Task: inverse folding
């Protein structure tokens, strides 16, 4: 089952060309991945960094744009965990217009678990490992 | 000569992990490419869309993160036009901390000239072609 | 009945102090007012400017901050239309944490209907007038 | 001598109405106040929160909009410290188009020094007091 995150496209997301500004799409993707973390492992990025001293910085993000978005659209972002390494997670992201399922963008986002104090990579923390491994979609 | 764009890292660019939020880096890169357009072809994105009816939507953006940034850093973003096709431009982006030259991120951004009314790709407009071809770095 | 808009506080909304960045609150308020327009008069800001040539620029925004927000919080923003003039609308905004009802911010936002071509104020357009007058809360 | 902060208006700051989005102006003002802190007391917000455990959250922000901005404009934001209390600073903000001096917005922003650990207001820290008192404009 692929995780889905839904959000309205806001007027403030558009630019003078009348469509969503390129720089906004990475926020859309990150917001959907953030929701995936809460739903899948039950801990938010904020709790992870603040309470547990664990970070998940991204080492790669890429996006291919297929069609533009406007506030007429509701965005449905699919988040699939396509790979889990020792410390890294690779997400495949697909953004669609909610009702027509028109494809808007596809992306790949890779993050790494790190110890916040040393900024060094760490193995996926034990309490999250089972949930993460169970979420890998191949 | 590679084009360079300089900016301070703002407090509002950081997140609760104490470093610049992942979603901000595409704005940094786009802001530097926007400055490249003004400097190289003498027409801003705003003038292009508003006065000339020409858009330059991005079809691909990717970023690899090498080290984090904070407001202690001033960012120097290098913009190199690595390829110009019939209607597309491919930029190689390199973000460094200004004084130490420490590498922060590398990226590839591809945009396409389009007729705004039809949203169809068009050849690089004649008035811009010479300046663009002269800027290609191989 | 006061209109309510609900949203999660995102990790990307925070800053290095570990709370939502001051500059984000006006976006929260505007996003809630944007939802009020869709719900109350059935036309979005995007449709108004793109399809009808009508703008609603803000002439005043103010915010008083009562307590900070983090991604542990879900935000509930109440939007009340407190006054409707010939062309202006005055909104009273109240931001609360959804479950505890803890007050986070209070604001006053004033916008004016304008003809987009001339940028001159216009009377509240006839098709919206009844819905708007019916929404005024005194 | 009033402190001035200069910045280009970016394409990504605009919305589908072809002018700068309302929600961006508080970021413009905050960015100018942030530069004022670095210039006046020699410590950035980031250093204050990270190195010194001191916060300066805003308790009030208000903006009156006089004319719109586009990326054709370069913005010159004047920051005047109009009042310094025991723990609070009141700034008067004036945004103008750089070359024509056309007025775009006026604002009032009030922040309070707090101990980050307790979130309680503190007196303006001794090392900053002289520089701050010397900057008050009446």
Result:
């Amino acid at each position: 089952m692929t995780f889905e995150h839904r959000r309205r496209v806001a007027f403030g997301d558009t630019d003078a060309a009348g469509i969503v500004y390129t720089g906004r799409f990475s926020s859309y993707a990150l917001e959907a991945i953030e929701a995936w973390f809460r739903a899948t492992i039950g801990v938010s990025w904020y709790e992870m960094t603040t309470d547990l001293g664990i970070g998940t910085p991204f080492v790669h993000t890429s996006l291919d744009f297929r069609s533009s978005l406007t506030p007429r659209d509701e965005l449905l972002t699919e988040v699939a965990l396509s790979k889990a390494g020792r410390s890294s997670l690779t997400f495949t992201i697909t953004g669609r217009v909610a009702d027509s399922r028109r494809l808007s963008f596809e992306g790949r986002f890779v993050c790494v678990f790190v110890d916040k104090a040393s900024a060094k990579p760490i193995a996926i923390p034990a309490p999250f490992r089972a949930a993460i491994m169970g979420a890998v979609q191949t």
Notes: Helices of chain D lie at 25-41, 45-51, 126-135. The mean pLDDT of chain D is 97. The first helix of chain D runs from residue 25 to 41.
